[in-house]
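Posting for a labmate who doesn't have an account.
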Amino acid sequence: MGKWRYGVILDAGSSGTRVHVYRWLDNNKVRKEADPKRLKSLPEIKTKEEWTKKIHPGVSSFATKIDQVGPDHLESLLKHALAVVPADAVKDTPIFLLATAGMRLLPNVERQLLLDRICSYTRSNSDFLLPDCDLHIQVIPGETEGLYGWIATNYLLGSFDAPEKHDHGKSHSTYGFLDMGGASAQIAFAPNATEAEKHANDLKLLRLRNVDGSPQEYKVFVTSWLEYGVHEARNRYLKHLREASGEEIKELPDPCLPAGLRTSLDGQMLPADSTPDVHLLGTGKFDECLRQTYPLLDKDAPCPDEPCLLHGIHVPAIDFDVNHFVGISEYWHTTHEIFEAGYKDKAYDFNTYQQRVQEFCSQDWESVDVGIAAHRWGKKVDRQMAYEVCFKASWIINMLHSGIGIPRVGLEDTAGSRHNGTKEILQHGKEKGFLDPFQPVHKIDSTEVSWTLGKMVLYASAQVPPDGEDALPVGFGSNVPGIPGDFQYPSVELLPDAESGHWQETLFAGESPRRIPGVLLFVFLVVLAAFFACGRSRRSRIYHKVTNFFNFGPHTSHKKRRIFGGKVPFLGRRNASYERVLEDGSRDFELGDISDPSDGGSDSDSMTHRMPKRAFSWNGTKTPTKTPTFKFGFDDSSSGSIGLGIGSSSGNPMDRTGLAVRTESREHLAPIALGPTSNGRRSRAGSPTRSHLKSPLMTPVADD
């Protein structure tokens, strides 16, 4: 293994899959060369823009054609990763495919079949490290996605390694995280000390490890809103629009589209002379668009455990004096792709942003189309992006300010509420970092902010040896001391031996105290398997040689010779059978022991009852050229092979040749059922209304 370690993550989102390749120095090399400050930091993860590749559509679109997911989707992503990772490092490079909200919406059976095919294709077409499909190829809950994003954000901003440079007051130094994709939205933040104590059971305990093996621990609240991404929110909006208009109305006025634009319900632009059955007609009224998208927040839903933000989901109170949020994905794209001018070096300003959106969305579609052709908003802006942006902007504004409660910087007077204003942001932004209530970002220090980076930080941190034997593992779980029952390990190597599937590494690892007994156990298992593979006659000869070696010769008493044979069927002869074996060069043969009725034998065979229970010897001068074998007695062929004493193959861990069949445990994480109204959050112990709403973070999700 060289000085560099690599990791590959495929982010399988609802609209496409993006492969990320990350690299970091081997911990042994870092420890030899690092200064004391570096030793107290997390592993340094690096990536490059050209190491990333995205393809469309999303992996969930292959649910009904799983045979195509490999050649039509995964092949190009694997080739890209193999071109980046050096050939001699591939076998030591872990690969993960972690799917998000698009796959969460699939039924259980379709989802699992698709994941199984992805895993088998990846193993067959690459040599990347893939020891456990359940942990490496899975659909992660929205909470896990949000926590990974929180790790990535704070890692890139430097708040983990240098908290003194990010003092937000009240002993708080971390940043909040907001993410919005096509199907879901997430929030993750560390509450202030008062809220953290009040809602301790709602928090997740996260543990990382520095280069020197010392730990870092954080208590984070994280939750996710499924169907609150921009695409799913648009689908819900159109459904309400159709219901409000009535079935007889074929042309639905849509204030979220530029005036004069006609589209189908699925977003396809229509020519002026077409007469579709049901379609949308843009009216270009952005204020009305804001009003019609507000009900989608579901702010009035019952809240079983106060306080709540959206859809009745509990969220601790957010202190915007110390909780400064960074937003990625749609929070960035919708505020910068068309409205980018003047925003590259400036914090998000609600008033300025809303004015720009109002100006753009009030245009008629012909004017917008001319601007697109002239690259008025840059070469990346096409027709689809232009007509979708008004709905997205209204949804982002409602989510941020009416939903989550981000102060409207540039419009609201925040001096009395002690919120950070635009003037303070511009004065201290460069020296203090992101001190505004909300800041959309795409890259920090030339590295894209992605939840996949958070996953790799956790994995690389877990590879660092701990600084003591009693050190707790890297990972996350419920906010309780020690290792909680729902603790999520970032890699299969760290799972307990019984669950890891890597027993051979434990047995043969150079430093493992189990190495010597492990080797002996392995040799014993090989010998035992070979013994089972032998035919019955060979096992009989081996048995006699072993017993003769220990002075259990043919002239010893019958009881001694049956020490094993009379107890274990595959070592000796079955009780209810007769066997006559003549071997080349052998002058002895025996009649097997026969059970009488008092020994529980079958009453159906009168010959069995009349046979004496004894052994015979015979010496002859001529051996037949063919070895005959005669059997009779009660032989139930339906119960499997009598020679081995094995039942039917469906209920026995051995195959027809006597070799043990290898099975792999899929029990590496204990699944916890999600309640029908849980929305992916975990209950506080003191709240009887939420006692049944528990959710694992990394356990593969079930149907919502």
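Reply:
Got it, the structure tokens are right above this. The chain has a mean pLDDT of 76.
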